[in-house]
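Posting for a labmate who doesn't have an account.
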Amino acid sequence: MVNPAGPLCLFVMDTKSTHMPRKRDEETGQYTEAYTDDDVLDAVEALELPGTGDVAERVGCSHELAYKKLRSFEEEGAVSSRKVGNTRVWQLQPDHDWHADRARRAERAGRAGRDRDDDQETDSMNMLTDYADSSAPQEDADPVRNEAEQHVRDLDLAASTEQQFEDRLELLLTVFDTIRENTDLDADDRSERGVTASELKEIVTNHDRDHHYDSTESYWANWVRNAKLTSLPGVEYRGRGIGYVYALQSDRDA
């Protein structure tokens, strides 16, 4: 839970994949989402003003996946969010009938299942389509994060093994994601809030990924500084009082 007077809430991400994981129905052979919309909404309902990390932990999915679904629900009017300190917290909209939305989703799923049962040949074709889809680029991939990842890969930063490189890369992308989510720019009163270097180092220190250095400071010096955070798309440094902010307006307005 979020304590407005407490320390920074850490957003620790496990983002091996940017698309929705799927599980296979043994009877139909069809693929379904491993984490459904209802799972995410149930987590928001069960928790009191949860942060994105709280929802991700409750559902068992990645931080990025939970955030994408929550943003989608916010656009639909099912949930709302606000900043409490450095944390974005979520709550169900009391005037939105998301239980009716759940019934409609269940009905759509039921109709799809009945349609598959009507034609075995269609089932086979769907399985082939699922296989092709799993091999193709995912539509919900994050182009800004992909651009940041490619930038870091092109720098050819130090690592002894491929696993070391991937771990260090994922940590740096977690830093990038944290800046993106926690920036608060208010054009009206010029009030700005970002994420400081010390807060980002704390996230690196508490992340499940191993940076393979003796200390977080060594990782920061050899990877984060060499990668130049401000060279990543949209990242700016606004001084010690504000820290790093994400200012790519087209993506923030999406």
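Reply:
Got it, the structure tokens are right above this. Strands lie at 22-24, 31-33, 79-84, 87-92, 184-186, 191-193, 235-237, 244-246.
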